[in-house]
Amino acid sequence: MIKKKQLKKVRILLIGPLPDPKGGVSIHIKRLGELISPYYEVNYVDESSVRKIEYFNLRSKKLFSYLKLIYWADIVHIHSGMLFLRIFHLCLSKLLFKKVIITIHYTFKNHNLFLHKVYLNLCNRVIFVNKETAQLLSLCTATYIKEAFIPQNIANEPVLPQNIQCWIKERKAQGYAIIGANAWRLDLYNNTDLYGLDMCIKLINEIKIQAVKKVAFIFTVSSVPKSDTIFRNYITQIKKLDLENDFLLTEQNVSFVRIIEYSDVVLRPTITDGDALTIREALYMGVPVIASDIVNRPKPTILFKCRNQEDLFAKVNSTLENIIEETRKIRYNITNDYLSFYKNLYNF
Questions:
Q1: pLDDT, tens only, 279-309
Q2: Amino acid 336: pLDDT
Q3: Which of 103, 150, 335 is nearest to 257 (CA)?
Q4: Each residue of 163-190: pLDDT tens digit?
Q5: Cα–Cα dist 225/236, whole Å
Q6: CB atoms inside a 10 Å sphere around CB 122
Q7: Orientation angle between helical segments 197-210 and 309-321, nearest 10 degrees
Q8: What is the dihedral of CA 198, 203, 209, 213, to 10 degrees?
Q9: Which residues pair with 188 in a beta bridge?
């Protein structure tokens, strides 16, 4: 009997940060690789500040190894957050006659639009996580609008460290509602806290002063080294306000999906955003989400006016008072077939 020759799998190179540290983009790339690996040969170029032995890291500056990976690939799928890196990967991939896909994980502002149009039109395909950016650029190349979300399998998520589990369980036993929020890094954007940690601390202080209800807050930061001074300043502020029993700010390496599992509400008070993975994860798990109105959010996210402390307090207070009703409103059932989308995307 003559054996049928097996078809060679398409080779896909995913470029961008990989966890750890954990961030929305890095988690998306990891889950995407896991989703498509049974059907394609998958490799990675890691842009993370933390090097792992299992992945080639761009920071190694080994140009020959990097070029070998580009040469190996049939399709190069770029997720880089930095404009320079996106253009760098695109140009080298095109010089080696590779098909290139770029996913834009954030919302463009009205600057450098011409440059973005030029290099993105060189791609074979471009994915935007929201329609606002796609409409802003109106590219000639093939474009897709798709949220950067692949459903989590909570069974695969690492359990929380014992100290965090104990902190949450103690407050739950004392009748506290739990609010969770996270940040990849404590960056400033236009001299303002990008992730709104300052607003979260003020929120809990206001709730404690008014004694309207018992609320505890856990805020996780994935990568601290480059924002260590800001992190320490917030730790000091929490101590000065006597909020150590009510507010846990942690730099421990944790799964935020596990934080969501314990949370009554998830908060996303950012001043700029793309399609936040945190929001979709929480809604997928049936947990109400309150988020700034800086971009369109998936329904039924509860919106508050960006950087408006009074509105944030009102929305949190109202949500907690009506938590059963707000939880019932969530009907965020994942009906999209994500695997089919990416199979179609990689079909050239």
A1: 999 999 999 999 999 988 998 999 999 999 9
A2: 58
A3: 150
A4: 999 999 999 999 999 999 999 889 888 8
A5: 17
A6: 15
A7: 60
A8: -150
A9: 193
Q: Which residues of 271-280 are buried (b: 16+ CB within 10 A; e: fewer)?
A: bbbbbbbbbb
Distance separating alpha carbons of residues 156 and 207, to the nearest angstrom: 35
pTM assigned to the model:
0.82
Give the total residue count for the chain. 348
Residue 41: which pLDDT band, with cuts at 50, 70 and 90?
Answer: very high
Per DSSP, helices labelled H in the chain are: 24-36, 63-72, 83-95, 113-120, 131-137, 162-173, 197-210, 228-240, 256-262, 277-284, 309-321, 323-329, 338-345
Structure tokens at 94: 């095109």
Structure tokens at 206: 């206001």
Res 6: pLDDT: 63
d(CA 236, CA 277): 29
| Identity of the residue numbered 157 | E
Residue by residue, DSSP assigns 199-225 as HHHHHHHHHHHHTSS-EEEEEEES--G
Sign of CA dihedral 243, 226, 156, 331: positive
**Cα–Cα distance measured from residue 96 to residue 146, given in angstroms and rounded to the nearest whole number:** 28
At 96 the pLDDT is 97
What domains lie within the chain, and their CATH numbers? Answer: 11-148 (3.40.50.2000), 156-329 (3.40.50.2000)
Does position 53 have pLDDT exceeding 90, yes or no? yes
Adjacent-strand bridge partners of 191: none
Give backbone dihedrals phi and psi of 306, rounded to 5 degrees, phi first. -55, 130
Provide the CB-side half-sphere exposure for 243 (13 A, CA).
26
As a whole number of angstroms, the distance between CA 179 and CA 267 comes to: 7
